[in-house]
Amino acid sequence: MRKVTALHEERGGGKRVKVFLDGRFAFSLEAEVAARENLQVGQELSTAQVEALTRAQQFQRCLNAAYRYLGYRPRSESEVRGRLRRRGFDDDCIGAVMAKLKEQGLVDDVAFAQFWKENRESFSPRSQRLTKLELRQKGVTADIIEQVVSDLDEEDSAYRAALNRTRHWPVSDYPNFRRRLAEYLRRRGFDYEVIVHTVERVWQERESGSG
């Protein structure tokens, strides 16, 4: 058995606690881990308890890293797992953290795919094909992608993308307009027929002054 002889809060807000066993510094814990485990001076710890504290510390560090990563925007499960692996956490720890995040509703690939689709539709419309490709690259499974993205309206997406792009274009001749807009819509993943129809529609609206 080893005895807890001191607990010192580290400088910088007291978010970590230095643990001294038998008069010597042994390891640091997140303050929330020390509180949750009810660690106290004078307490005696077995080797198994020390190992359990170490595992609890790793779990909390991994969980905090995941929270920070998710703080910027929603992420797919694959993105979170990849981030935590790159941070050096082992698979067992990551698996436990992912279970916790799912329990809290913070990782949900259906919700993530919906967020991604709606974000694209609102700010940067693109084809169904390209949206599906982006989600595959985020590690979302094919069945979820199909469930969420299959109702995208290609014509509507292309039209809104075209309006966003051409809103501030100066008046130009039709061949130049068609070339520029067609190239843009191709980069957004739209097929030939949708591009042709969209270019004609937007050009006619510009000509009539209704666009």
Number of domains: 4
Give the beta-strand count. 4
Largest sheet: 4 strands, antiparallel
Mean pLDDT comes to: 93
Measured as a percent range, the helix fraction is: 55-70%
Strand content: 5-15%
Keywords:
211 residues; Arc Repressor Mutant, subunit A; 11% strand; 4 domains; 62% helix
Task: Characterize this entry briefly.
With 211 residues, this protein is an alpha+beta fold.
Describe it.
The chain has 211 residues and is of the alpha+beta class. The chain has four domains: 1-45; 51-107, Arc Repressor Mutant, subunit A, CATH 1.10.10.10; 109-149; 158-208. The chain is 62% helix and 11% strand. The protein is built from ten helices and four strands, in the order βββαβααααααααα. β2 and β3 form a beta hairpin. It starts with a strand and ends with a helix.
What's the layout of helices and strands?
Layout: E1 2-9, E2 16-21, E3 24-30, H1 31-36, E4 44-45, H2 47-70, H3 77-86, H4 91-103, H5 109-123, H6 128-137, H7 142-149, H8 154-166, H9 174-187, H10 192-208
Antiparallel strand pairs: 1-2, 1-4, 2-3
Helix pairs in contact: 2-4, 3-4, 5-7, 6-7, 8-10, 9-10
